[in-house]
């Protein structure tokens, strides 16, 4: 009979611990409800962080699936002109919802207007890739690469100098997008 009672008491104690009803006296004056609230806030914070990370991975995964080759694109509609951007390994990538011919014309106009010296221009891959290389007014090397991803989607990559200059690359992207 004693073992049955002890087993029942253990089960009750176990249930109280599972439900967080078990109260342990604390010397620091913090109530168990405060501790539970702290844990729930921490849990909520971790869940939010996990959701953000999951969202980032979903966006990056879909961008990789949509792009051909090794280019990672930023996605998100912005007024029909720019679809997204990413700065990676010294190059600033922007995806625009325009045909490559229109993007090429805008790029050539910007290079001419900003007095950049063109050293090389070429078109390859059956007119899907176009490149303008040269020097800026400051004497820095630049490269503007265009890649047609679809009939109305063009990715423009800008690199300034050997290691890249994100601020200057952004200026060039802004100048180009103003021509659309």
Describe this structure in words.
The structure is a single chain. This protein is α+β, with helices and mostly antiparallel strands and 180 residues long. It has four helices and six strands, in the order H-H-E-E-H-E-E-E-E-H. Strands 1-2-6-5-4-3 form a six-stranded antiparallel β-sheet, with helices on one face. It has helices at 2-18, 32-66, 100-113, 166-178; strands at 82-88, 91-96, 117-124, 129-135, 141-150, 153-160. Helix content is 44%, strand content 26%. It is elongated.
* Average pLDDT for all residues: 74
User: What is the number of domains?
Assistant: 2
* Rg estimate, integer Å: 29 Å
Question: What is the CATH-assigned architecture of the largest domain?
Answer: 2-Layer Sandwich
Counted by DSSP, the helix tally is 4
Labels describing this entry:
single chain; 180 residues; alpha+beta; TATA-Binding Protein; 2 domains; six-stranded antiparallel sheet; 4 helices
Secondary structure layout plus pairing:
Blueprint: H1 2-18, H2 32-66, E1 82-88, E2 91-96, H3 100-113, E3 117-124, E4 129-135, E5 141-150, E6 153-160, H4 166-178
Antiparallel strand pairs: 1-2, 2-6, 3-4, 4-5, 5-6
How would you concisely characterize the structure shown here?
Helices cover 44% and strands 26% of the residues. It is built from four helices and six strands; from the N terminus they run ααββαββββα. It has a six-stranded antiparallel sheet, covered by helices on one side.
């Amino acid at each position: 009979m004693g073992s049955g009672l002890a087993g029942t008491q253990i089960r009750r104690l176990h249930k109280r611990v599972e439900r967080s009803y078990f109260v342990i006296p604390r010397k620091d004056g913090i109530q168990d409800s405060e501790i539970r609230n702290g844990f729930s806030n921490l849990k909520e914070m971790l869940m939010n962080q996990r959701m953000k990370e999951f969202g980032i991975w979903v966006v990056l995964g879909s961008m990789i699936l949509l792009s051909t080759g090794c280019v990672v694109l930023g996605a998100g509609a912005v007024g029909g002109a720019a679809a997204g951007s990413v700065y990676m390994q010294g190059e600033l990538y922007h995806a625009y919802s325009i045909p490559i011919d229109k993007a090429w014309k805008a790029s050539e106009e910007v290079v001419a207007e900003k007095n950049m010296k063109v050293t090389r221009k070429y078109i390859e891959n059956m007119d899907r890739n176009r490149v303008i290389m040269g020097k800026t007014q400051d004497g820095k090397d630049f490269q503007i690469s265009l890649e047609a991803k679809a009939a109305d989607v063009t990715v423009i990559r800008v690199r300034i100098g050997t290691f890249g200059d994100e601020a200057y690359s952004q200026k060039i992207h802004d100048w180009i997008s103003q021509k659309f």
